């Protein structure tokens, strides 16, 4: 009996390892290809003929790659901080204050969840052009600075905070903003972490709005920079450069993911939605 | 005594108006944000879609054009194909993976992380990696087929295979997310159910169909709804797998074009903002209809 179970378990492991190869192989291929020279791409080969750094050299000397990296970090960090502050404050007020109009406001905010970004990008672009916000950090970041889903999430979690501890703080003479910051926020730390991770990832990988909202190479975010460099090249696709750019974009994030994997997995499971 | 009581009442009254004031002072900026960044632009998109090109006024031309536009219909059908291909397959694979991972005792955490990695990584970066692997002459996938004596395929260059090629990458990226959500769903099923079934002499297969599957139903609904909405909005993958310096994304012969790809090309390559707005309004309505039907049908199944 025991032996049969072991064989079954072994088969499951073999199945899972086969799947892992499919999952991991493209990343291995990406790294190997980034060390090839362009002629290596004229025929099929697994390994580069010899380790070739010319792709990476080109990235750092001839393109704005580091600037794109910086832009992506700035946009993702600022938007995430903004979302953490505003979403949680709105969620807190809607969950813990009873006042006329609270329900209507909540419904208005929630209803914006139904609007797809695709519907908004053209109006944003048209209005942004008139205000000269296109191709600026402000224009890139503003549309994401408060998120209805985050407000909804925060409200759900803030509801579970007992009113008593908030009232106790009021009796102690704490100001309302301080109560939110010092009493309410620590209670929903886990949900805040989840929301922060999802917001960061969503903005780090965002493509549709950044590709529309940037017009010069130095304002591009990382995905936009890689994408436009790769498609614009008229002298044939520079595969080793593109794979180098992809490697540099993917591997550091993967390391961060592995370090924080427990929190990230928890966060995604908790909310179930990517930004 | 009564004085104190009166004072207390007055104080709570004042506290209530004070709280309302505080609430609104906290909410003013966010409300303005939602009005200016979400609601007015939505109305503006609708009004653009009823405007003639390059002048003001009211017209139905954009929608009349849309109804007769073969490329739009091709993109709409493609979009529904993306939904029909990717959503069921990624949910099925995700569920099988979750059941397998839930079954093993060792390496659970390891499998979970590695299968989830593609979902975390940049769509743009992985699209280019897949594009290289799909290359008909020197790509890895045709090389692998040749080991099994299967003739090389055109993949992204062949109009009859390109949409499937894009879909396969989408499934590869999304299955880990489905797996993760299914694992959370599996963990939530009480162990006693299985113990009771075992006492009743139920087999493994029976337990799966009578306990696991029905209790995973809310998870399936969630993944179906979010998966469909995501697939209806497919853009980045197609743009990066098919665009080139010599042609817009969505090729070859519009065989991979989606509604969002067609909207993007109309707005930012042909600079026809009013027509592109009509396309986005059509997409918006399609999303609303599909979501509504889905919630009706799936939640009804669940109640049965």
From TrEMBL, chain A:
PANTHER family: ABC TRANSPORTER PERMEASE PROTEIN MG189-RELATED (PTHR43744:SF12), ABC TRANSPORTER PERMEASE PROTEIN MG189-RELATED-RELATED (PTHR43744). Belongs to the binding-protein-dependent transport system permease family. Keywords: Cell membrane, Membrane, Sugar transport, Transmembrane, Transmembrane helix, Transport. It is found in: Cell membrane. It comes from the Bacteria. The chain crosses the membrane at residues 7-32, 68-92, 104-125, 137-154, 191-212, 237-260. CDD domains: TM_PBP2. InterPro entries: MetI-like, MetI-like_sf. SUPFAM superfamilies: MetI-like. Residues 69-260 form the ABC transmembrane type-1 domain. Its main location: membrane. This is Multiple sugar transport system permease protein. Pfam families: BPD_transp_1. It is a multi-pass membrane protein.
Automatic annotation (TrEMBL), chain B:
Keywords: Cell membrane, Membrane, Sugar transport, Transmembrane, Transmembrane helix, Transport. The keyword Hydrolase does not apply. Residues 76-294 form the ABC transmembrane type-1 domain. It comes from the Bacteria. The chain crosses the membrane at residues 21-46, 80-101, 113-130, 162-186, 207-232, 273-293. The keyword Repeat does not apply. Its main location: membrane. It is a multi-pass membrane protein. InterPro entries: ABC_transporter_permease, MetI-like, MetI-like_sf. It is found in: Cell membrane. CDD domains: TM_PBP2. Belongs to the binding-protein-dependent transport system permease family. This is Multiple sugar transport system permease protein. It comes from Scopulibacillus daqui.
